[in-house]
Amino acid sequence: MRVCIVGLACIAVVAACGREPRGDEVTAEARALTVIGPDGKPRMFAGDQDSSGTRLCFQSADTTLPYGAPATVIHAVFPQFATGGTLGRRSKRPCFPGPPGSSDSIAYLVNAPGDTVGWRGVPIIVLGIVPPIQMRGDTVMLGIEPGKVSWRFRTCASAEGIHATAWSGAALVSPRRWHSYYYLGYDVEPDCTPADYEPDSTDARR
User: Fold this and answer.
1) CA 102 to each of CA 24, 142, 184: distance values in angstroms, whole numbers, following the listed order
2) What are all long-range contacts of 102-105, with beta carbons under 8 Å and residues at least 24 apart?
3) What does the DSSP 8-state code read for residue 199?
4) Is the peptide bond before 123 cis (omega within 30 degrees of 0)?
5) How far is CA 111 from CA 54, 57, 77, 117, 144, in A?
6) How many helices (H) and strands (E) does the chain have?
7) What does the pLDDT read at residue 100?
8) What does R_g of the chain's alpha carbons equal in angstroms?
9) In the Cβ-directed half-sphere of 71, how many Cα atoms lie within 13 Å?
10) Cα(140)–Cα(134) distance, integer angstroms
């Protein structure tokens, strides 16, 4: 009988250690997620706010982003605003109007304070652990890379969409580290410069 009990206990321990985390469980992997991924690219996304003003989400081709990972939401329209949150569940429906993505992209919700939704412009979602948000006047600065220049953020309009960017230093005159395009589907007054969208300026390994 004692042998059987010990055997059952061992099976239970092995099962517990090898089980998949529940959908609402925050794993050590999620808590330790870094902004810069193994490929050298930042885990950053152009976000969306639905028409009800209650949800933030973004689309990603990466289906393995861990629930509960730290998230920073940045609104880059001046005066800029940023706050902390966490990565929420995968969403079966995109925010409205959803940003276009590839056919294998899925939507992720972002859990953030209620006053985060409703700010102007396209929010930038930064996934991963970062130091406390810094403000220099009305400019958000985020220490993405320890010991290096803090990143700054910018959005601007092209003919039919919004370019969202991050820079290691002052926008437009420093290396651009990340770029994403959010298609609006209607005409807007352009105010971007070539530095906002030229492909050669984006390199997360600089």
Assistant:
1) 27, 29, 16
2) 102/61, 104/61, 104/63, 105/59, 105/60, 105/61
3) G
4) no
5) 10, 9, 21, 10, 20
6) 3, 12
7) 56
8) 20
9) 29
10) 6
92, 113 in Cβ contact below 8 A? no
Q: How far apart are CA 132 and CA 11, in angstroms?
A: 43
Digit-coded pLDDT (tens) for 167-188 = 999 999 999 999 999 888 888 9
Structure tokens at 102: 């590839």
* Terminal C-alpha separation, the chain: 64
The Cα diameter of the chain in Å comes to 79
CA distances from 175 to 112, 137, 167 (A): 29, 22, 6
Angle at 139 between CA 182 and CA 57, to 5 degrees: 35
CB 109 within 8 A of CB 93: no
CA distances from 9 to 15, 17, 187 (A): 10, 12, 65
Which pLDDT value is given to residue 103? 53
Tens of pLDDT, residue by residue over 191-201, are: 999 999 987 55
Contact status, residue 134 vs residue 74, Cβ threshold 8 Å: no
